[in-house]
User: What shape does this take?
Amino acid sequence: MSAERAGELPAWPEGVARHVLAEVDSTNSEAARLAPRLTQPTWILARRQTAARGRRGRAWVAPEGNFFATLVMRPSGDPVVAAQRSFVAALALADALGAAVGPAAALSLKWPNDVLLNGGKVAGILLESAGTGGGVSHLAIGIGVNLVAAPPAEAVEPGAARPVSVMGETGLRLAPETLLDLLAPAFARWEAQLSTWGFAPLRTAWLARAARLGQPITARTMTETIEGTFETIDEAGALVLRTPQGRRAIPAADVYF
Assistant: This one.
């Protein structure tokens, strides 16, 4: 049994702040308000959100007891490197959930920013940034995890991964604060890898956990739908599909199985 499973949580990362709020409109919105006076990376956890949102402005169902948190930071590097923090977050979240629920539950990563539990979507990641002149002044990494409840299947788009919760799949009731105490150190470990070695080790680690690698999937961008075999992700993190028309690298899309 790991230290985390035995009840001994890892140390909180040095130089990282932690704010726990009873209620907020959204943790990403709070991150944007905090960013101008930011002095260190800061995790913001809310027990309740009143205006949660997902990718492309979609509403995010946010019942109390689920996990709603944002890490706001001033990242080094250009916007491409900043965007690679979605892979840092996904790997860290898989580590944290794995430490909490143990090996019996199958965790995998769905490009670009979802975590799957037993094949269903248990978590999503939303990156928002601001900056000028090609730089990034701040980055907000929003993370939502269905700890106690998941949206009904009819609430998601056709072809999207079925929603699941940690409690529904494992019987474990995990407190949001406990997950944050596991997630923040895991994020710090993967962030150190990115800062020291670049994206290559994260790419290898992410691919080892990738859902549907080598299988047919559908990617929908704002302008087209592309069907092909999920071959890999490239050195920048773009999805690479093998299609009848040739190999395609897709930097941004929604993926459907």
Notes: The chain has six helices and twelve strands. Residues 105 and 118 are 6 Å apart (CA to CA). The domain at 216-256 is CATH 2.30.30.100 (SH3 type barrels.).
